[in-house]
Amino acid sequence: MKYLKMTKLESIKSESDKILHLIMNNKPLISAVVNVKNEAEALNKCLRSIKNLVDEIIVVDMNSTDGSQEVAKNAGAILYSYRPMKFVEPARNFALSKATGKWILLLDPDEFLNKTLKNELRSITKRNDVDYVKIPRKNIIFGKWIRHSNSWPDYLIRFFKKGAVTWKKEIHSQPITKGNGITLLDSEKLAIHHNNYTSISQFVTRAVRYSGIQADELFIADYKLKTSDFILKPIQEFNSRFFFAEGYKDGFHGLVFSLLQAFAIALIYIRLWEKQGCQDKPITKDSFVSASQETTFEYDFWFNKYFKNECCSNIFKKFLLKIRLALNYLTKNF
Asked: What are 64-100's pLDDT values in tens digits?
């Protein structure tokens, strides 16, 4: 038996290949993959948090000028360069192709792991029935952990066997998976810590960048703008986060974040209008009235639901709210 093992090892040419062979055959090898552009401070914290978990760190830099490359080198990462992109997905697949580990931990520079999550991921590598893992993410927005507003548990596939997960090239695309997946409990102890937005200006800067990319996609698809795109869709975004996802429970943070997300949706269609030449088209009365009435009805629906559940214990007031909502429904298309 020893002779067979030695023969197999001798067929591997270089000393580094021998070491890699021994690692791959004696314990699961975990590769961390991080794409970065000008996030040196955040990257340093990210890489320090995974130092005692992973066996290999792959950092793909997109022309950083703030010292991110030096941070990666000091952490012992294998550093690659990729042309600057407006969004990360194309560079992400490039980074994944460079990882040699059996398991891959995918992180953004503004994310880091705690001890409990690292122990859980380490134990998962010993299982044969798991190919990818959905991990909750704890989003810190303007200094506060946002527990509602469609921001928790914010499950993402970030730990998987090499080859089990790939991404499309479109912005914010969902991963394509193979094999069997599991979902971790929605516990803070098992969550990736994400410093999502640290300031309003950072949010606006990203919204301008992302809206331009999404407007480009709509422009290529020859999307026909409607009045409701500017009025109804932003309100729907606000309603979904502040009312349906109970963003009001996050206090002023939830209110401001919901408003900013509504602004980001409106910005997509405003940027598309700009790309189409800022065409001087008249707004028909019918389209404006229809979009406004639909917007009013949807807001009233969610406000009444919120008011009834959170503020009103009087049965008579609840009855009046139902009548008001029914009248709004009957008259929304007038």
From this structure: 999 999 999 999 999 999 998 777 778 888 999 999 9
* Alpha helices, H only, the chain: 2-10, 15-26, 40-49, 68-74, 89-98, 115-124, 200-220, 227-238, 251-275, 285-310, 315-331
How many residues are listed for the chain in this entry?
Answer: 334
How far apart are the C-alpha atoms of 106 and 118, rounded to whole Å? 13
- Domains defined along the chain, listed by start: 2-196 (3.90.550.10), 199-331 (no CATH)
Distance, CA of 191 to CA of 184 (rounded, Å) = 9
Angle between helices 15-26 and 2-10 (to 10 degrees): 130
Other C-beta atoms lying within 10 Å of the C-beta of residue 221? 8
The answer to whether the pTM exceeds 0.90 is no
Which residues touch 157 (CB under 8 Å, ≥6 apart)? 132, 133, 134, 135, 165, 175, 177, 181
Query: What are the pLDDT digits (tens) for 138-166?
Result: 999 999 999 999 999 999 999 999 999 98
